[in-house]
Amino acid sequence: MRFIGIDPSTKTGFVALDPDGNVLRAKEITGIGDKDPKRMRTMIVDIVQHIQKGDAISIEGFGYASQQAVQNGGIGWGIRMALEGRSYQYTEVAPNALKKFVNVTGWTGEPGNKKRLSSKEKKTAVMRAVADHFGFTHKSDNVVDAYVLAQISRCIALNLSDLEPYQQEVIGTILSPPKPKNKRKAR
């Protein structure tokens, strides 16, 4: 069994781990050329060619504040449709859950004097946290995110329990998501 992490973006991160957490494949996938839809289509084909029957797959959920939301949405949905078309099951992991799994909150500073991290600062904080937690480094933040997603797949599939409390909380939320609050009031 392999554990797969996919971070969909214009440069998609892909990581495959073995049961012991060793990296089998870590790659940034960009597709062919620079003209869409060919680039996006070839990227999705490349990703799916790396998947094998029996893989446990986690894919990062959609980020709502992305500057490239439409393009990333197309790539994200394209990957999901390609996986579904081949009957591959996958687990959706919210972007904040990915960060929380390595204890990154998106804030810096002491209580009462906190500052929100910029997008670039968050990426750097996640890359540093992944190196500290797992000893994994890569030049691409997309591949680093995919690595965290692969680790989440591994923890879920192997039912690992030797996790930090914040990691246990992330896994618990993925396996038993909170029920949405009904904001609509009855008349």
Q: Can you give the helix content as a percent range?
A: 40-55%
SS strand fraction:
15-25%
- What does the largest sheet look like? 5 strands, mixed
In the sheet with the most strands, the strands line up as: 3-2-1-4-5
Which spans of ≥5 residues are poorly predicted at pLDDT below 50?
A: none
The CATH C-level class name:
Alpha Beta
Number of domains: 1
The number of helical elements comes to 6
- Strand pairing plus helix content: what structural class? alpha/beta
Question: What best-fitting shape do the alpha-carbon axes yield?
Answer: globular
Note down, in words, how this protein is organized.
The chain has 187 residues and is of the alpha/beta class. It has a single domain (3-175), classed as Nucleotidyltransferase, domain 5 (2-Layer Sandwich), CATH 3.30.420. The chain has six helices and seven strands. The chain has helices spanning 38-49, 69-85, 95-101, 119-134, 141-157, 165-175, and strands at residues 3-7, 12-17, 23-29, 56-60, 90-93, 107-108, 115-116. A five-stranded mixed beta sheet has the order 3-2-1-4-5. Strands 6-7 form a two-stranded antiparallel sheet. β1 (3-7) and β2 form a beta hairpin. The radius of gyration is 17 Å and the shape is globular. One of its GO terms (molecular function) is nucleic acid binding. InterPro entries: RNaseH-like_sf, RNaseH_sf.
Q: What attributes does this structure have?
A:
187 residues; alpha/beta; Nucleotidyltransferase, domain 5; five-stranded mixed β-sheet; two-stranded antiparallel ribbon; nucleic acid binding
